[in-house]
């Protein structure tokens, strides 16, 4: 029997975007490197290797987000306990909308995400560190 999906990703994205702040890339660029803001890169390691990184961004693979945020988790990362604004981004803004919504529902605040993600960041001329060269 085939599965019947009753709530698709577009609905989930629309719901998340209605609850979290979506930053235009220009606004995100103005927040970059501020002492009270942490950019959280949700892309997987292959994306980082292929496309580069936003300088100073904290890398948190999307699959670890809930575990790294929760101070009760054995995987908790202290960065998520800091009194800062957390700006999430991914490749195009979909994962980051869902992640920011999840983080906010867990009690992390304030949070936002970058509309258009890393793609928009690069297109707007945002700083990018090249991927570390692989030795082999």
TrEMBL record:
Entry-linked Pfam families: Rhodanese (PF00581)
Boundaries of every Rhodanese domain copy: 33-130
GO MF annotation terms: thiosulfate-cyanide sulfurtransferase activity
SUPFAM superfamilies the record matches: Rhodanese/Cell cycle control phosphatase
Stored InterPro entries: Rhodanese-like_dom (IPR001763), Rhodanese-like_dom_sf (IPR036873)
Protein name: Rhodanese-like domain-containing protein
């Amino acid at each position: 029997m085939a599965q019947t999906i009753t709530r698709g990703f577009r609905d989930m994205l629309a719901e998340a975007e209605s609850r979290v702040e979506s930053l235009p890339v220009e606004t995100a660029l103005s927040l970059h490197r501020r002492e009270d803001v942490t950019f959280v890169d949700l892309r997987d390691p292959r994306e980082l290797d292929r496309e580069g990184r936003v300088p100073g961004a904290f890398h948190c693979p999307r699959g670890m987000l809930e575990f790294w945020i929760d101070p009760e988790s054995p995987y908790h990362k202290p960065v998520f306990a800091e009194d800062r604004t957390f700006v999430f981004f991914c490749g195009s803004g979909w994962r980051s909308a869902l992640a920011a919504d999840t983080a906010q529902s867990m009690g992390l605040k304030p949070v936002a995400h970058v509309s258009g993600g890393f793609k928009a960041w690069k297109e707007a001329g945002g700083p990018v560190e090249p991927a570390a060269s692989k030795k082999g």
